[in-house]
């Protein structure tokens, strides 16, 4: 998995620096999570990799780079910072259910949404191309509050 990430960096002539490696490792360890840049930074600090000092600005720059070369996908949020996740090479894409209250994100597979896509295509003659739809609502925790 991370080898593919390294290959991609090499392909675009970016060096695999210890910082980039450490950030990729965090993203890999937290697969299925959707992290803000500051979360990634805090996780790096927690790991206390003293000889790999990374500033918050570096993490921001790295995430921009990773997005540009297609290593991570950026999930823009309303009224809060964007979240990132590694683009997985092994699955065709997934969608996100985002709670408007606690901002928890759940993932659903594209298969679950095929019927909806087919309906839109048939009924509206519109082909949905989005690989990562965002659906807003309220999670069970927040509805029961
Ligand atoms: Zn919630
Ligand atoms: Zn996701």
Write the layout of secondary structure elements.
Layout: H1 2-11, H2 18-29, E1 35-36, H3 37-46, H4 56-68, E2 72-75, E3 83-86, E4 94-99, E5 105-109, H5 114-124, E6 134-137, H6 140-143
Parallel strand pairs: 4-6
Antiparallel strand pairs: 1-3, 2-3, 4-5
Helix pairs in contact: 2-3, 3-4
Bound molecules: zinc ion (2 copies).
Describe the fold and architecture.
- The chain has 145 residues and is an alpha+beta fold.
- The protein folds into 2 domains: 2-86, Arc Repressor Mutant, subunit A (Orthogonal Bundle); 94-143, Dna Ligase, domain 1 (2-Layer Sandwich).
- It is 41% helix and 17% strand.
- The protein is built from 6 helices and 6 strands.
- It has a 3-stranded antiparallel beta sheet with strand order 1-3-2. Strands 5-4-6 form a 3-stranded mixed beta sheet, with no helix packed on it.
- Strand 4 (94-99) and strand 5 (105-109) form a beta hairpin.
- Helix 2 crosses helix 3 (37-46) and helix 3 (37-46) packs across helix 4 (56-68).
- The longest helix is centred in the middle third of the chain and has 13 residues, at 56-68.
- The chain is globular and about 55 Å long.
- The model has no long low-confidence stretch (mean pLDDT 90).
- The site of one zinc ion has 8 residues, from helix 6.
- One zinc ion binds at residues 99, 101-102, 104, 138-139, 141-142.
């Amino acid at each position: 998995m991370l080898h593919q990430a390294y290959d991609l960096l090499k392909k675009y002539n970016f060096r695999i620096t210890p910082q980039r490696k450490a950030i990729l490792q965090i993203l890999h360890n937290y697969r299925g999570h959707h992290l803000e840049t500051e979360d990634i930074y805090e996780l790096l600090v927690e790991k206390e990799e003293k000889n790999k000092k990374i500033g918050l600005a570096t993490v921001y720059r790295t995430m921009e780079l990773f997005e540009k070369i297609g290593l991570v996908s950026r999930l823009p949020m309303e009224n809060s910072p964007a979240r990132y996740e590694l683009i997985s090479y092994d699955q065709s894409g997934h969608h996100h259910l985002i709670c408007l209250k606690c901002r928890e994100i759940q993932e659903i597979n594209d298969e679950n949404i095929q019927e909806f896509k087919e309906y839109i295509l048939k009924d509206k003659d519109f082909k949905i191309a989005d690989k990562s739809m965002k659906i807003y609502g309220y999670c069970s925790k927040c509805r029961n509050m």
